[in-house]
Amino acid sequence: MNSLNEQVVLVDRNDNRIGLMEKLEAHEKGLLHRAFSVLLFNNQKELLLQQRAFDKYHCGGLWTNTCCSHPHPGEDVKDAALRRLREEMGIECDLKKSFEFIYRAEFDNGLTEHEYDHVFTGTFSGAPVINLHEVADWKYLSREALQIDMTKHPENYTPWFKIIIDKMR
């Protein structure tokens, strides 16, 4: 199945499930749906970033958190985060829930991200084994180096990642 045909879980502002919709349609209509973001830090407290594959349906080629996606209908959000971390980055590690937030971002291609985002953190110090259909590149950055680069080149980062970094400060 094409990933754009996958269903996302539509939610209200309290993350209560209110329905299902194909992922592309939810992004075309800008409807609030459940998502997650994962941030992994190495032993030097550097963050593992991924550069999204260039052919992604939005934000292709932009740098972002270690992994992000949507849980399948009926799938626990943490289980979904662990699954996508394996699928995108080839990583298995423990995750801890950090916080949740809602954001909305409109893109030039007419799509809108409107997500109830569950943010998880964990520790991993190795080299990921990236899925080239999902990820173009990766790197570890210290918080200081990341902050400097995000200030100089905000256009290189995804909208939700900017919010997450701001909330983690």
Automatic annotation (TrEMBL):
State the coiled-coil residue ranges. none
Instruction: Write the protein's name.
Output: Isopentenyl-diphosphate delta-isomerase
InterPro entries named among the record's database cross-references:
Idi_bact, IsopentenylPP_isomerase_typ1, NUDIX_hydrolase-like_dom_sf, NUDIX_hydrolase_dom
Q: Can you provide one Gene Ontology molecular function annotated for this UniProt record?
A: isopentenyl-diphosphate delta-isomerase activity
> Which keywords are on file for this protein?
Cytoplasm, Isomerase, Isoprene biosynthesis, Magnesium, Manganese, Metal-binding
The record's comment on protein family reads:
Belongs to the IPP isomerase type 1 family.
Q: Look up the domain of life of the source.
A: Bacteria
Please name the top-level EC class of this enzyme: isomerase
- Ranges for domain Nudix hydrolase come to 31-163
Q: Which gene encodes it?
A: idi
Question: Which EC number(s) does the record attach to this protein?
Answer: 5.3.3.2
Q: Which Pfam families match?
A: NUDIX
Pathway info: Isoprenoid biosynthesis; dimethylallyl diphosphate biosynthesis; dimethylallyl diphosphate from isopentenyl diphosphate: step 1/1
